[in-house]
Predict the structure.
Amino acid sequence: MSDSCNPDSTTGKAIRRKLQKGAKYNYDFVQVASRMVAAGMTEKDIGYVLGVKPTTISKWKQRYAEFALATNSQSSAKQIAVSHLVANGLRSAMGYDYEETDQVLEMVDNPDYDEDDENCKEPKLIQVLKKETRKLKHRPPDKDMLMFFLLNLSDDYHNTRSITIDQTKKQINVNITGKLESSDIRKLAGAAFQTADALDKKSKVIESKI
């Protein structure tokens, strides 16, 4: 493996990351790449995240049409990804309801397991759902995110501004002052998307073994 360097966004120092030699293409990369391009990332950035060299990204673009479309800054794929980012940001800004699921799992004897059969490939124990509880919860509006969209989507507001993001597990805090830079937009878009995704997928699983 060889090394790749990308600067740390907070310290500015280079971060070394091991690159995969002969990395194999994965169709999951299409979604990752399209979202990164939508957030303004370069091929070098995409390569860094996927753990491959920029030359590998170029080869994948030539070989796989869906990957080329996802990484084309002028394509409809980018517009869809941008819309998705904006939708998730607006969702965080306005507040929304979401469902949290609590699951209790337990290990029980597998009825298909035959201890007398030496060739039996079935596990002795299997995991089953014992109890599931669903709770409807509400994510309150984020006033700072609302301010961001107000300033950037309305022609009536032309105040100078910049963004400082304080991200926690539960919310994103955005302070707007000074001049808005593209790097700030990328940070906000990425943080908004990550937070919305995390809330969508939130599922607490408790496992009890017998």
In short: The CA atoms of residues 33 and 71 lie 6 Å apart. The radius of gyration is 23 Å. The mean pLDDT is 68.
